[in-house]
Structure formats: structure tokens, C-alpha cells
Write a structure and sequence with these properties.
This protein has an 8-stranded parallel barrel. A 6-stranded antiparallel beta sheet has the order 24-25-26-31-28-29. Strands 3, 4, 7, 8 and 9 form a 5-stranded antiparallel beta sheet that branches. The protein has 607 residues and is of the alpha/beta class. Helix 6 packs parallel to helix 7. The radius of gyration is 25 Å and the shape is elongated. Strand 17, helix 7 and strand 18 form a beta-alpha-beta unit.
């Protein structure tokens, strides 16, 4: 069942809202002229009316029970912020030029995660368009937008959104988003949208005024969980499934990333994620091109990405946080929080070979056994990263890796990411060592809520703050500090790192051993005491060997190699990469004693 206002042309608009516990609902038109349109209720609790003389731009509320005016929970536009009226949108006006577009296959994606508000000085969808060609020529073929559902004010990560169908008005609304998607497709770039089906933001959240959207049966970090399996859950499930289809059909979005899917609680016969995957698969078959679903999930549970036929939910790919945690703890030596569980090379080798690091072992941080065996899951079903919005922005100072480790370690991290047999995700600015932090920021209009957020952040980071060091998430200056210094990418060390990323992406696409994301044709071994890892990958007649040194000192070792002639292809310690100078030979021989530079990696190819 579609929900929201569906403009049909010629001044006709169908309004549909789910409010099963109400007996009376009306469309309250507030502009351009005021009038009230009673709605009819069906057996499932959906109120409907087909209205005449309704043009695009019409502003309206729903009047509940003859008393309360509330915005449409499936509003397509909120031009007056989250507390204002909803707006009728004509989605047929867009002149799409992507008729021949079929999308980038998942296994070929190089994903670039960005925040619309801080990616450019303008902070809009359309301001991204002039940068598309440069991103594409660098090697990016998929852009992942952090959430863009309408949130309070004009500054927010997007996870406080309360209107999942309404593209943020300050970013350019639905028209701006469509122009961005169309331009990206013309450039050869897929668009992935981060969507939130596990919670709503606190300000402007009127869902409970309409229906039992929440349940007290489960608790999340944001309060009561969304109701996916209790009474009236059918309407809640429909609301989110329709949202996913809306982004694919109306906006030509190529893939969705499901935020914190482990907080979607459902013990019903068919899990919501499976039902969602089935509906998206049906749409893919109908339109003749594949739409993808990826998920963030903290449980390291293969059920999320196993096929439905094999008893899974059928989600196409899953974020693998453990890959990040392994690498981060190795090069920063941090041990606080969940990093307690990591810090050994053998764990990173397991992440390369299998995927999940915890596959049923005891987790000291969690104080319980954790994870499942992912060794049989194909490599392209894992999205890996060395930075992202969470791992940077949830730090007290929003510090990126460039603030935490040496330039040598930054290059090593790039090698780890792009030589892995998985789908790489690059966080905006990472590719050129962006100096701007990525902090947490909000622009709530409720001052009491602002104070709650401030105190919450102070409490979360009390152990990290010195006097006067607290960064106010409500300050506009905090937001402005996060805007990228895009021009830096062509200067000094920034240009060197950018070139290294670009070269690694080129190697991924041209060497069969790297292009084929086959974990079965891969070996990863370590010398733990020296912090060395050896990666051997092969496909057809192509073989690569990569040696990675996570130590802060030179390490000498005897090269025990697969038989053959190994020719050096890339050495991050070479002067062209602003390194200390290579100590490894151009040709590597069996049992040869060699020395590798600190925090460096060297890639050899079989001749």
C-alpha cells in the first residue's frame, strides 16, 4: 500500500495515511487556500481521499480526531522544517536522462561515503555535481550519501531524521537529489543512500500520534524499538518497504545501506529484512536491473547476507566493522572500548581470509561469545573500510587517521583497504589525508533537547576532555570545521596519497588476482612477533604477493615464497611516495633475507 501524497496530474492528488487507531482523519490544506478534506478509512486502517484542485506546492497537515494537526509521516517535502506542513510534490517533472543506465555491479564498486552538508561549501546536492568527474577519474564508481531524510534545522549527520520520504530541504529537496542522481549516472557512478529503519530522531517525531510505530518490548540506544513484530506491525513494515521502493523507483537510487540493522527487532515468522529483500528483488526483476541492499550489523551474523534459500535474509552485502577495528588497533595501538578485542596481525589475516574476526569466540569487550563463521561467504558480500562517519565522528575530537598516525601508516592503511578481497569504502577526504575533522553536529530547534545532547556528549567523552576542550555539537562553527578542504588534494603529501589510492584502484581493476574477489584463492599468514603479514592472491595466471609491516621499525626476515619469479610492482616506502627509501629488491628470491621499512607495504607480481 502506497502512503503519502501521490500527485496524479491535472490538479488531482491521492492522499493515503495509515492511522488504524483513529476513527477520523482529514487532509487540512493550509496553502494556497485553506480547506478540509475528510478521508475514508479501509479495513486495514488506511485513510484515503482523491482530491481535486490540488497542485504541486500545496501545503497540508493531517487533522487527527478532528483536533490535532500533524505533518504527513510519509511527507515527500518539508519546506518549513519538521514542525511545519508537508508539501505536495510532482515527481513527473524531472527530465531523466539515464534511460540506458543499469548500475555498477556490487563486486566492482569502489564506494565513496560523503556527507552532503560538509562535502562542499554550499552543502547541497547540486553542489556535488561539479566534483563527480574528478571522483570518477580518481576511481570512484559508487557514492554513498549519509542519510538525507528531513531533520530539524540545517545541520545534522542525518541520523536524527524524522521524515524518511522527504529529502532534506536545505540540501535542495527532492529536485536537487534527482539532479544529482541523474548526473552521477551520466558520469558512470551509482548512488547508494543510507537509510534509517531502526529509529526516528527525537525532534518532530510524530509517528506515535498516528499509529503504534513503536514497541516497549525491545529497547535501543534511541529508546523504544520500532514495531516490526507486534500488533499493527503490518502497517509499520509496509511504511518502510514502501520507502525503499520509493527511493529506487522515484529517485533512481541504485542501492540502500541499512543503518544499524541489528536494532531491527523481529521474532515473527518472516524477518522484516527478508521481506524487504524479497520486495526489492521483485522490483529488480520488474525493472530489469539489480537494486542492492547493504546493511550495517553489529552481530557478525552471516544470516543477514545468506541467501533466503539458505535460511538467510537475502541482503546483498554487510559492513564488516571488524576489518576496521583490526587495522585501526594495529597502527594506532589504541585499546580503549571495542579495540580491546583487537590488535593482532593474525586477526587481520583472518579478516582477509574469512571476513568476520569473531566467529563464535569469546569477546573480552562484550563479555560473551560473539560472531559466526563467514569463511564460506564470498568476498564481495563484505564492505570494508579504514575510516567512516562513525569511526571518525564518534571520537571526542572527530579526528581522522591523518591526525592519529604517520604518513607512512596512512599509506599502509590504504594498501590494506584496496588489496583486500572485499568492497572498499573510502570516507570523504580520506584519499588525500584531509585535515578537517569530522565532528558530531546538530541544529535542533528545541533548546531543552540541545542541552540534553550537549550533556550526553560531555558524559560520553569525559575521560578524553581537558578543561575547555569540549566541542559544542550545536555550534555552527563545529559544523563549518568539518567542511572539506577540497583544493588540498592537489598539493604536497595530499597529492601523493591521492596518487597512491588511484594507483591501487587501477591495480585492483587490471590485475586478475586483485579484481577477482575470491577468498578461496587467497592465503594470509603472519609473523606475529614482528608484526608482519603476507598476502598471496591468485586468479588464472595472475598472482600477487604483498608484504605488510605494521611495526614502527625496520624488520628483517627470510622470504619464504610461493615458487616463481616475483617482480616488485609497488613499494610504499619509495621516494616517489614520500617514503623513507625502499630496502626490498626489485626481484624477490626464495629464502632471501630482506628488510622491510616501518609501516610500509610492498606488492610483488609473479612474472
Amino acid at each position: 500500500m502506497k502512503v503519502g501524497s501521490n500527485y496524479l496530474g491535472d490538479g488531482r492528488c491521492e492522499f493515503i495515511v495509515w492511522a488504524p487507531t483513529h476513527e477520523e482523519v482529514a487532509v487540512e490544506v493550509v496553502s494556497p487556500t485553506h480547506r478540509s478534506l475528510p478521508m475514508q478509512k479501509d479495513e486495514w486502517g488506511y485513510f484515503k481521499v482523491l482530491a481535486e484542485d490540488i497542485e504541486p506546492g500545496t501545503l497540508y497537515f493531517y487533522k487527527l480526531g478532528g483536533e490535532t494537526d500533524k505533518p504527513d509521516p510519509a511527507s515527500h517535502s518539508q519546506p518549513k522544517d519538521v514542525h511545519g506542513p508537508s508539501e505536495v510534490v510532482d515527481h513527473t517533472q524531472m527530465n531523466w536522462t539515464d534511460a540506458g543506465w543499469s548500475g555498477i555491479p556490487l563486486e566492482e564498486m569502489i564506494i565513496y561515503e560523503l556527507h552532503v552538508g560538509t562535502f562542499t561549501a554550499e552543502g547541497t546536492f547540486e553542489a556535488i555535481i561539479p566534483r563527480l568527474r574528478e571522483l570518477y577519474e580518481f576511481g570512484i564508481n559508487a557514492i554513498e550519501l549519509m542519510p538525507i531524510g528531513q531533520f530539524p534545522g540545517n545541520r545534522n549527520w542525518g541520523y536524527d531524521g524524522v521524515f524518511p520520504y522527504a529529502a532534506q530541504h536545505s540540501y535542495g529537496g527532492s529536485e536537487g537529489l534527482k539532479k544529482l542522481v541523474d548526473a552521477a549516472h551520466q558520469q558512470g557512478i551509482s548512488i547508494i543512500l543510507d537509510v534509517i529503519y531502526n529509529h526516528f530522531g527525537p525532534e518532530g517525531n510524530c509517528m506515535s500520534d498516528y499509529a503504534p510505530y513503536f514497541t516497549e518490548s525491545y529497547q535501543t540506544a534511541w529508546g523504544n524499538a520500532i514495531n516490526f513484530d507486534k500488533q499493527y506491525s503490518y502497517g509499520v513494515r509496509n511504511y518502510f518497504i514502501e520507502n525503499a521502493l520509493y527511493w529506487f523507483e522515484t529517485f533512481h537510487i541504485d542501492a540502500l545501506r541499512l543503518d544499524a540493522s541489528d536494532n531491527i527487532f523481529d521474532i515473527g515468522v518472516k524477518h522484516f529484512l527478508q521481506e524487504l529483500a524479497e520486495n526489492v528483488d521483485a522490483l529488480s526483476k520488474k525493472q530489469g536491473r539489480k537494486f542492492y541492499l547493504t546493511a550495517e550489523n553489529d552481530l557478525s551474523d552471516t544470516k543477514v547476507i545468506r541467501s533466503i534459500e539458505a535460511g538467510g535474509y537475502g541482503i546483498d552485502a554487510q559492513w564488516n566493522d571488524a576489518f576496521h577495528h583490526c587495522l585501526h588497533s594495529l597502527i594506532t595501538e589504541e585499546k580503549a572500548g571495542y579495540y580491546e578485542d583487537y590488535g593482532r596481525c593474525e586477526q587481520l589475516a583472518k579478516a582477509f581470509k574469512e571476513g568476520f574476526v569473531y566467529s563464535g569466540q569469546y569477546s573480552p569487550f562484550r563479555k560473551k561469545f560473539h560472531g559466526s563463521d563467514s569463511s564460506a561467504i564470498p568476498g564481495h558480500q563484505f564492505v570494508v573500510f579504514i575510516q567512516n562517519h562513525d569511526q571518525v565522528g564518534n571520537r571526542a575530537l572527530g579526528d581522522r587517521l591523518t591526525h592519529l598516525v604517520s604518513f607512512e601508516a596512512l599509506k599502509l592503511a590504504a594498501g590494506v583497504l584496496l588489496l583486500a578481497p572485499n568492497i572498499p569504502l573510502i570516507f570523504m577526504g580520506e584519499e588525500y589525508a584531509e585535515d578537517a575533522p569530522f565532528l558530531y553536529f546538530v541544529s535542533h530547534t528545541d533548546q531543552k533537547l540541545v542541552e540534553v545532547v550537549r550533556e550526553g556528549r560531555k558524559k560520553d567523552f569525559a575521560a578524553f576532555h581537558l578543561e575547555g576542550e569540549f566541542i559544542d555539537p550545536f555550534s555552527e562553527d563545529t559544523f563549518k570545521k568539518c567542511q572539506l578542504n577540497w583544493e588540498d588534494r592537489q598539493e604536497g603529501k595530499h597529492k601523493v596519497l591521492l596518487d597512491l589510492y588511484q594507483h591501487l584502484i587501477h591495480l585492483r581493476r587490471t590485475l586478475p588476482a586483485l579484481k577477482t574477489l575470491d577468498k578461496q584463492n587467497l592465503e594470509a599468514s603472519v609473523i606475529e612477533e614482528d608484526k608482519l603479514m603476507f598476502l598471496h592472491r591468485w586468479s588464472q595466471n595472475s598472482q600477487i604477493l604483498c608484504i605488510m609491516n605494521f611495526s614502527e621499525k625496520d624488520v628483517s626476515f627470510n622470504a619464504t615464497l610461493p615458487s616463481g619469479n616475483w617482480q616488485k610492482t609497488l613499494d610504499s616506502s619509495e621516494s616517489k611516495w614520500m617514503g623513507l627509501g625502499s630496502t626490498l629488491p626489485d626481484k624477490l628470491r626464495q629464502e632471501q633475507e630482506v628488510t622491510i621499512r616501518p609501516h610500509s607495504f610492498v606488492l610483488y607480481q609473479m612474472e
